[in-house]
Amino acid sequence: MTPTRTVLRIFASLATLLAGYFPMPAQAQALKVQETILENGLKVLLLEDHDSPAVTFQVWYRVGSINEQDGKSGLSHFLEHMMFKGTDKIGPEEYTRLIAKNGGRSNAFTSTDSTVYFATMSRDKIGIAIDLEADRMANARLDATYFEPEKKVVMEERRLRTEDNPASSLGELIGAVAYLVHPYRRPVVGWMKDIEGLTSDDIKAYYRKYYLPNNAFVVVVGDFSSKEILEKIRATFGKISPGKKPPPAGVEEPPQSGERRAVLKKEAELPLISQAYHAPNLRDADSLPLEVLQVILASGRSSRLHEDLVYRKRIARWIDTDYSRVSIDPTLFSVTAQVMPGQNPAEVEKAIDTQLQKVRTEPVSARELEKAKNQIEAGFVFGQDSIFGQAMRLGQYETAAEWKLLDGYLPGIRKVTAEDVLRVAQKYLQSDRRTVGTLVPTKEESR
Fold first, then answer.
1. Contacts of 408 (CB under 8 A, 6+ apart)
2. Is 267 a catalytic residue?
3. 3-class DSSP assignment, residue 57
4. Residue pLDDT, tens place only, 188-240
5. How far is it, in rounded angstroms, from Cα 19 to Cα 302?
6. How does strand 43-48 pair with strand 216-222?
7. Which residue is catalytic, options 68, 80, 368, 398?
8. Domains of the chain
9. Terminus-to-terminus CA distance in the chain, angstroms?
């Protein structure tokens, strides 16, 4: 299962609404996280938050599509599915039923960089989730009986979320073209032909290689006693034997030295145009002004691209930017628009280029800069209201680099200047660094 951006978009919309009304506080509050590393190498991050009587418990495995090999794409995601097929103690799908029976919510997702299992329950019931997760870290059966039926489920998920989704299909194509050698070129769900070829032995070998306490970490946020819950984690996870820690993917994408273009002809209602530029991740200080630039360009109705293409010219039905700086390796900064009926995709691309040229040649105004920074902080603050959101942020930063970098996020955003935004726009939004993808709608084929 892959995470949606719905909640994040709700936070962003509220942040846009409030950004112009509330100034940013003088300083950010440091995270009061207790970090412990067990003898078997499992890192435990505990953050007490007693505002609500609930606890979220998350197990993050340092394995995602970045760790897969050509011909075996989708292994991480497939294994995530198989982890719900039981252990010697727990029957197939019993994990989810037990959590729900005790008033909790649970799920899992796979990304490029990690695989995550989580449950949110009341303080007095969270021990159930801890027991269940420790059990399947060490004792997942991965019974071959369930392998082929689950393969059909995964293939259907790919069909629904990618092959039947024009925007996802275009994004998948752009990733495959933008990256020549880096594993980010492969979709998390896997290529259909690769999924078809996966075997039960592939899943079992992958589990033994990557599902180790010394290749994972636990994040717990909510209403609990750190001393008590750490003792529980030590008693359950602490007895699991470590293994040989897998090496990092260690693949570096060569610099792009010329524009690349790709065209996807697919049944769809309207054309899409997308531009993806190679950009740094959170380890690079340039990632912060790039995040501010992303907000200025296409976050909210008053953003530059939305106001120009959607509201004034009415040549795009919607336009969005995406920049996921919290990643293990350098990523992409993308701009995607759906073309209005009767409009030419080339004209939409030209209008996008005109706006990008402006941010490469003229500093943004002080008001525009402050509004974007307020919007980012408002979104961050809204995220802090959720124990799940706090745990997710800790896990994402710990996966990509280390959780302690979160303390520097808001201070770093506040220090961004108009000159910083101009500089990163000039450095990264270059045509030689980009891949342009166009979706050309086709009519439904007669059968």
1. none
2. no
3. strand
4. 999 999 999 999 999 999 999 999 999 999 999 999 999 999 999 999 999 99
5. 12
6. parallel
7. 80
8. 32-236 (3.30.830.10), 260-441 (3.30.830.10)
9. 32
